[in-house]
Amino acid sequence: MPNRLALESSPYLLQHAHNPVDWYPWGEEALSRARLEDKPILLSIGYSACHWCHVMERESFADPVTAELMNRAFVNIKVDREERPDLDSLYMRGVQLLTGTGGWPLTAFLTPQGLLFYGGTYFPPEPRYGRPSFRQVLLAVEEAWKHRRSEVEAGARRLLEVLRGEAVSGDAGGAGAGILSETRPRPPGPGTLEGAFRYLARRFDAALGGFGAPPKFPQPDNLEFLLRYHIRTGNPTALEMVVATLRAMARGGIRDHLGGGFHRYSVDARWLVPHFEKMLYDNALLAWVYLHAFQVSGDLEFLETATSTLDYILEDLASPDGGFYSSRDADSEGEEGLFYLWTPDEVEGALGSEEGGLFCRVYDVTAEGNFEGKNILHLPTPLEAVALREGIPRPELERRLAEARRRLKAQRNARRPPFRDEKVLVSWNSFALRALAEAGAVLGRADYLEAARRNARFLLGRVRRNGRLLRSWKEGPGKVEGFLEDYAGLGNGLLTLYEATLETAWLEEALALARQILHLFWEEKEGRFYDTPRDGEPLVVRPREVMDNATPSGNSLAAELLLRVGHLWGRTDFLEVALRVLEGERRAMEAVPSAFGRLLSVLDRAEEPPLEVVVVGPLPGPGMDALLREAWRPWIPNRLVAGGVEGHLPPLPLLEGRRAQGGRATAYLCRELSCSPPLHDPEELRRALGGSGEEPAPGGEPAVGA
């Protein structure tokens, strides 16, 4: 018989709906019962694509004996961390303080009032890995609650004070007041950026790419910062670190060489063996940084990786109405990675002995295998060297491999695919929206721009209620109000869509979201953003995540949006708030730069006035389109694009007096409202922007595995 989770929409919660555990979703019903019965709460937090969450569900939550212990001693609450990042952030930080580690599934034990007093992550059904069994933990917590309750509650109160202290720590208030007294507020100086570069350089794996020891995560925000640092300083090492890492990932097993896109992370140093789940946010953020790396380096491998990743999103994660689904699981048919693995016999059976043998040599498919007796496809040898070794001209080799990949992908599609979480999350969708809009503008891809428009219309039309964003949508609007990362992420995505299309409606929506951010999430006296709205559900601590983790923090996204919108609309109040955020996090950025990749990029943006490219036309048409394409061709990190059709321009200070000269589409380059003479010819604009006159390739046959 199903439990209460059967009434939820979250796929993760529904996966537990037939457990014998008396699960509740987070809400007043469960919290009231805990207080009424004076029982501790067992809070379990995970997400649909989490491998160890599935393991613990099979081993413990589906077990009647374990469930009986849980039901007897606790009020049991199951939470999808993707729906409730506020709860996850709060209790994850508490468990990290208690144990020194964190991860999912998160297992937290709370007082009836919601105070954390004990926790951990995955617990096995029997003692192993140096961990007690889950039943041992349940019995020990039950005993402590019954017989040492005053000690337990005292510890919970002490932990609460630490969490509250962390939530309000920092220099934002005092420092912010100081910089606002200056004529022009100044963020932390270039020494912060230099220090961050040196920190990342020390941790860089020069042999294999990436940073630190395995497991290795892609870290697109840190790579984006290094690209910016290279553009700012001309430092070649920063670019070399990005190129080496992106190349290693593009050729490694972390990439899906048949279907496109990337898995979550690599468990080894070589980027060979991934944790096989695929997340929307990873793929959107990586497509964005690969696109920028192509623009900076001209490397067609990066272009192909960017476009194949975006194509994967559109093929596998796009909903019929324009939203993007959240993830694909790591497991299928009960085995991790099974969907993606190959044997030589399978390859040759699909391709024949000649083409199959070539494919196996190129993608390292062997009888021994590289993962549990089977093979993860990867490219251990560059294709130039393969072409020489095989005696095949490079263009012919690429053609044959492309056809082989097409046929193997069709064969793979007959397998049972991993489960897809069809929940649409606003913040994650906003990353895809921004990447598609920018790629569409850079590459002249109308399909990418239209996908971005459809996504924007879906989020604004279907995932809002009474003028307020919601967190998610799945077969209808979700119950949870949007968080800071949702508002700020969507604002940035809409602003990029305006810059890519010059369609004014997106600009106006971005401004409205920036205003809502200040109204709902900014606390002026404290000088800081919170992740939850001021009228949201009260928790024991109002969550405030400032570090950029797998996704940029709401704090970083809000500061970025306010800088971008503030410059375009001439809103000094927006600019001042963004600078207060930067100053407030200065010491943290300098202490642990790798945890602030996006905020470091925001700091880089704040360091100098943006280059503003204005495009105005008498009518929409090829003339405006050509100039707009040139505006986007080079990667200029601190560029803003504005304009539109004369007579229908938005009321931006930058556009005052800007006209289409001589009845022709006209471009202007501006800094701080000081603009160049009008430019009409796309080639003139290209030269003015420092371009070489070479066209970036819009796509075509892949240079390496797609």
Structure description:
This protein is of the alpha+beta class. Among the domains are: 4-167, Glutaredoxin; 335-417, no CATH class; 611-688. Helices cover 50% and strands 10% of the residues. The protein has a 5-stranded mixed beta sheet with strand order 1-3-2-4-5, with helices on both faces. A 4-stranded mixed beta sheet has the order 20-19-21-22. A 3-stranded antiparallel beta sheet has the order 8-9-12. The chain is globular and about 85 Å long.
Summarize the structure.
This protein is an alpha+beta fold. β14 (464-465) and β15 (468-469) form a beta hairpin. It is globular, with a radius of gyration of 26 Å.
Low-pLDDT ranges: 170-185, 692-706
| Shape verdict | globular
* Percentage of residues in DSSP E strands: 5-15%
Number of helices: 27
**CATH H-tier superfamily of the domain at 4-167:** Glutaredoxin
Q: Which percent range fits the helix content?
A: 40-55%
